[in-house]
Write a structure and sequence with these properties.
single chain, flat, F1FO ATP Synthase, 2 domains, mainly alpha
C-alpha cells in the first residue's frame, strides 16, 4: 500500500510540474508572465498554508493541554481557561500576520 501511495504522489508531482512548465511557456509566448511574479504567487500561497498548518497544530496542542488539566482538576477550570483563550488569540494573530504578508506579496504581482 505504501508503494502505491508513493507512486501516486510521484505521478501527480510529475504531472503538475509539466503543467506548470507548459503554462509558463504559454505565458511567455503571450508576452507576459514574469518568473518573479510566479515566485511571489507561489511563495504567498505556501506561506499562508504553512502558517495555517502551524497555527492549527499550536491551537490543538494548547486546547488539549488545557482540557487535560481541567479533566485532572475540575476546580482549576476558571484559572486555566483565561490563559488558554489569551494563548489561542496570540497563536491566531500570528496566522493573521501571515495572511497580511501573503496579501502584500500578492499586491506586488
Amino acid at each position: 500500500m505504501k508503494r502505491i501511495v508513493t507512486m501516486a504522489v510521484a505521478v501527480l508531482a510529475a504531472l503538475s510540474a509539466s503543467a506548470v512548465a507548459f503554462a509558463e511557456e504559454a505565458a511567455h509566448a503571450a508576452g507576459g508572465g514574469s518568473t518573479a511574479a510566479s515566485a511571489l504567487a507561489i511563495a504567498s500561497g505556501i506561506g499562508i498554508a504553512i502558517a495555517a498548518f502551524g497555527g492549527a497544530l499550536g491551537q490543538g496542542k494548547a486546547a488539549a493541554a488545557t482540557l487535560e488539566g481541567i479533566a485532572r482538576n475540575p476546580g482549576a477550570a476558571p484559572k486555566l481557561l483565561t490563559p488558554m483563550i489569551i494563548a489561542l488569540a496570540l497563536i491566531e494573530s500570528l496566522v493573521i500576520y501571515a495572511l497580511v504578508i501573503a496579501f502584500l506579496l500578492q499586491g506586488k504581482i
